[in-house]
Amino acid sequence: MDSAQDPISTTFRDRGPQAVDSSIVPDGASCIEQEIAGWVFSIYTYHPRQEAKPEVLLLFDGMHRNAEQIRNKAIRLAERTGMTLLAPLMDSERFPNWRYARAGVIQKRKIQPPAEWTGPILQALVDWARGLFPCTPARVSLLGHSAGGQLLSRVSAYSPLVHVDEIIIANPSTHAMPVLHERAPYGFKGLFSTEEADRRLRAYLTAPITIYLGKEDKGTRNLSRSTAAIRQGSNRLKRGRFAFRTAQGMAKSLGSPCHWRLVEVPGVAHSSRAMLEAEQLIEILKSKCVTDPPS
After folding, report:
1. What is the pLDDT of residues 271-294, one digit of tens each?
2. Rounded CA gap, 119 and 173, in Å?
3. What are phi and psi of 250, to 5 degrees?
4. What is the dihedral of CA 205, 241, 165, 295, to 10 degrees?
């Protein structure tokens, strides 16, 4: 897409602090109701009381879907970065595991119609978040921990997001691997035509993805143990490293760029609080850039 013709996709630089639309997101911690893409969400928000940068961090919790809790864990991060936090509640009643961790792509081993996929909902959340600042579109990053990381992995693979700065996939049980031979939701096999699979795989490799891992996340509690999951490694740390190495190798074999990076946090196991409070996350968010997948 030509950013000269589409100012909303421009990378905004040298922008001073701006006020968020207080009629939508009040200062401090709050919870708002918002209809997005036909779904009514409770969105737990935090807006730093000082004027903030026009930057938003969308947060996706793990298997317990505690949006309020993950918002609370990230408040210190928001105060340090000036970012506005948005944690949409994707409850297990409306978003069971197949709609959440598997991104709506597979239910009971059957491929679902693309209209049922969760990716378009996340894109609508991104588009809504970008409009929160009256003077300029906000820069939007996403962070998902554990099951939330699985959601972001599969959405990035199968329904590439546009107008995002960073997609931070933290400590997921499994990844959508950037390979054509592994069946979805662990790879690209079975979802697309050969040509379309190749296109989406390249888009996946060039997405602004950070594989964000706790170096002590070596336990097996709630770890997926399917055959395809075990092929990724024996724990979350090994699986994340394997996904990153696979992305690098696939990009090399395709002659494609790879915009992924791997960031590990020493001394941290499977803890969303510790991952949100780590200095490494500050560095990730400082160095982000707007990237759109190829059309």
Report:
1. 999 999 999 999 999 886 433 333
2. 19
3. -65, -40
4. 10
pTM equals 0.91
Q: What percent of the chain has pLDDT over 90?
A: 85
Give the pairing of strands 139-145 and 110-111: unpaired
Query: Order of strands across the sheet with 39-47?
Result: 28-36, 39-47, 84-88, 55-60, 139-145, 166-170, 209-214, 261-265
DSSP secondary structure code for residue 261 in this structure? E
Contact by Cβ (8 Å): 72, 30: no
Please state, in angstroms and rounded to a whole number, the distance separating the CA atoms of residues 267 and 81: 23
pLDDT, averaged across the chain: 91
Burial classification of residue 240, based on how many CB atoms lie within 10 Å of its CB (0-12 exposed, 13-18 middle, 19 or more buried):
buried
Q: Residue 47: CA atoms inside 13 Å, Cβ hemisphere, count? A: 24
Domains with residue ranges and CATH for the chain: 32-286 (3.40.50.1820)
Cβ neighbour number for residue 262 with a 10 Å cutoff: 16
The H or E element spanning position 35 is strand 28-36
